[in-house]
Amino acid sequence: MRLVIDSNLIFSSVLKPSSVPGAVLGAWRAGHFDWVCCEIQLSELRAALTRPYLISRIAQGVEPVEKLLHEMRESCHWKALLAPLPAVCRDPRDDYLFALYDQGHADLIISGDKDVLACKKDYPVLTARELIDRL
Known about the structure:
alpha/beta, Rossmann fold, 11% strand
């Protein structure tokens, strides 16, 4: 199964590894699904997760962030997105998720973002809890 995972879940999983988003990340690490990713998402995660404010809130500091970014680079299914991205979401900053779904031949989008979840009628979007319940 190939999944697109919204960055908001990754932020949560790094800040609270024992959370439901943390379980999603753990399921990926355990090989339960393939994570479809792109440079847009990696850049977004790197910029947000390396801010001093966030690093100060992570129990082990920068180490888990560096580990995750390395794991992503090595283990995600990478897709170079073709432009222009489709205008799907109320928040255009999330349109890359839908492009990843379409162009990366993913099965599901996993998100906790209300703008992404609002697209459930047109795309197979699940919350982290819904995914964990299915696994």
